Amino acid sequence: MKDTTTLYQHGTLALLVPGLLAGTLTMAELLRHGDTGIGTGEGLDGELIILDGHPYQVNAQGEVHEVAGDFTLPFANSHYADYQPLMTVLGASQADLNQQIRALAQLDNAFFSVKITGLFTAIRTRAVAKSEPPYQTLAQAAQQQQIFSRGEVEGTLIGYYAPQLYDGIAVAGFHKHFLAADHSFGGHLLDFESVTGEVAVQPFSTLAQHLPIADAAYRQHDFSGDDIVGDVRRAEH
Amino acid sequence: MKDTTTLYQHGTLALLVPGLLAGTLTMAELLRHGDTGIGTGEGLDGELIILDGHPYQVNAQGEVHEVAGDFTLPFANSHYADYQPLMTVLGASQADLNQQIRALAQLDNAFFSVKITGLFTAIRTRAVAKSEPPYQTLAQAAQQQQIFSRGEVEGTLIGYYAPQLYDGIAVAGFHKHFLAADHSFGGHLLDFESVTGEVAVQPFSTLAQHLPIADAAYRQHDFSGDDIVGDVRRAEH
């Protein structure tokens, strides 16, 4: 039976900060821990979103492709979907939506996922272009991100919420990726004006935090000089 | 087959800080995730150490008893032992030992466990007395700890190392509990002068972080006013 109470995470946001961007997990392995998720490829190669077991990549040209099992990732989340309906929203702003989800779900101190399907207006996403070794830092890579926008688009948003205590391990608060229903648009969600659709949530009792401990660069890195929380905040929000 | 690459953790050090001390996991459940571990009971009821599947409690009187499956805990770690020999030490100081383990194991960015069996000199441990609801904060409870010492004692030390990024979630660096071979002494390790014996380590690729999300006090607590890292450092080191 599939475990729907565990959120799997490979890597940390912190390891992206100094540019530990080697792909240390395959998509095939990530999919052994869930059918739904988000992530990024080796060298920050685009923005990934997994829906119903299908892993889609939005690359720096804004194109959406399904990736193969041997695609590798430095950071990703996955879980087995078992979302429960939370509410229907009609033209909700992003700030109102976040506030309503937190007020209704009462899960501020838990990990949970949110899935929103519907019509989004004035939506902006970004995707980072793949860098090659020696890898750039997260701050440098984020400067070369491409931003995409749509006036109106139907699609699915997958987000993960992490409690404040886990800032730097994950993105504290919400970390959201988006995919258009027709696969013509997607990426890491920057913002939107309004959404009309269905909001569902899935709480987790366990975070399975997997670390790339066989990777020499990760093992040997001294994180004490990195501004983990500051750089994550600037790059991911 | 038992998973020897995962460290299970119930709760966080952070939740002890404001006194969220309800026992939210039974020992029976903790033992489903390992045969080796450390923890504390409801209300900070003593110091727990699990060896070969047997959970021992050192209470505030310094007595050692095996606890039953329905004993509950607000915070604990467990894993299935698969230690690999690292080194033999002869009269090593605690500081030298920590430094040698880190230099040899090269696991600064991983979770790992250390097991040391041997003869310890001038060793000091502590145990906290159980508090009842409304629970004290960690800082208040730590003031009422009892300290125990022995000039020389044979026994086993079980420690867990957490990377700096996880400070407040776990104890960053080492968190060690001790049990004398004859069960006459033990507790949370404060310090020792020297140890002669065998040192073994077990690295983990995954931290399974379980949170008490069904507990109303945990769900509703606002952690933003707590000095998590400061209070954990003062209480646990």
Automatic annotation (TrEMBL), chains A, B:
Catalytic activity of the protein: (2S)-2-acetolactate + H(+) = (R)-acetoin + CO2
Superkingdom assignment: Bacteria
Gene3D superfamilies: Hypothetical protein, similar to alpha- acetolactate decarboxylase, domain 2
Membrane-crossing residue ranges in chain numbering: none
Entry's EC annotation: 4.1.1.5
PANTHER family assigned to the protein according to its UniProt record, in alphabetical order: ALPHA-ACETOLACTATE DECARBOXYLASE
Protein name: Alpha-acetolactate decarboxylase
Pfam families listed in its UniProt record: AAL_decarboxy
Molecular function terms, GO-annotated: acetolactate decarboxylase activity
Gene: budA
Pathway membership, UniProt: Polyol metabolism; (R,R)-butane-2,3-diol biosynthesis; (R,R)-butane-2,3-diol from pyruvate: step 2/3
Keywords annotated in UniProt: Acetoin biosynthesis, Decarboxylase, Lyase
Family, as annotated: Belongs to the alpha-acetolactate decarboxylase family.
